[in-house]
Amino acid sequence: MTPHQAFRPLLHALALAQGRGLPVRDGIWSTIAAAIAPQETAIVDRAVSDLTAEATPYLMLDPEAEQTVYRLAHRTFTEHFAQFGQEHERLHQVITAALTTDADLRLPEAELNPYVAQHLPVHAGHGRLPECQRRSAGSASMARVGSARGSRISMP
């Protein structure tokens, strides 16, 4: 399997990103892409670096929460990859599960990535997770999200 096969899920992940985009740091971008990719598609670090090198005209860099994030360069690209309705909800549910699992594996040794702290509740809300699931989606990581945000977790 070549890294190029991972390009579509990586781009799709950018279309589903919240805030200004997805960081490479702490594997956030690759974690989301792996969660939404077909099972036979492996998302490896090399795929991210290959995509950022080969798709430069289609990507933008932005700073957010003291880290660099990537986003699609044009709204048309986002609209092409974004899916709405039940599939949109399912994708955000999968993203919520992947981010919380990944964060729980890193805690308590590592700090929670700012993307997770700021945007995990938004992904859960887009996934229309029931309130009880939203609050327990990632146990330790969701508790850290609440404390990182300085208040009780409240989601749309």
Describe the protein's topology:
Layout: H1 7-16, E1 22-23, H2 28-36, H3 45-54, E2 59-64, E3 67-72, H4 75-81, H5 86-106, H6 114-126, H7 131-136, H8 140-148
Helix pairs in contact: 1-2, 1-4, 2-5, 5-6, 6-8
Number of helices: 8
- Shape descriptor reads globular
Describe the strand arrangement of the main beta sheet, using strand numbers: 1-3-2
Largest sheet: 3 strands, antiparallel
Q: What percent strand?
A: 5-15%
Overall radius of gyration: 15 Å
Low-confidence stretches: 149-156
SSE succession: HEHHEEHHHHH
Describe the oligomeric state of these chains in a short phrase.
single chain
The tally of strands reads: 3
Distance between the termini: 39 Å
Helical residue percent?
Answer: 40-55%
Class based on secondary structure composition and strand pairing: mainly alpha
Mean pLDDT: 85
Summarize the model shown.
The chain has 156 residues and is mainly α. 54% of the residues lie in helices and 9% in strands.
Give the tags:
8 helices; 9% strand; globular; disordered C terminus; 156 residues; mainly alpha; three-stranded antiparallel beta sheet
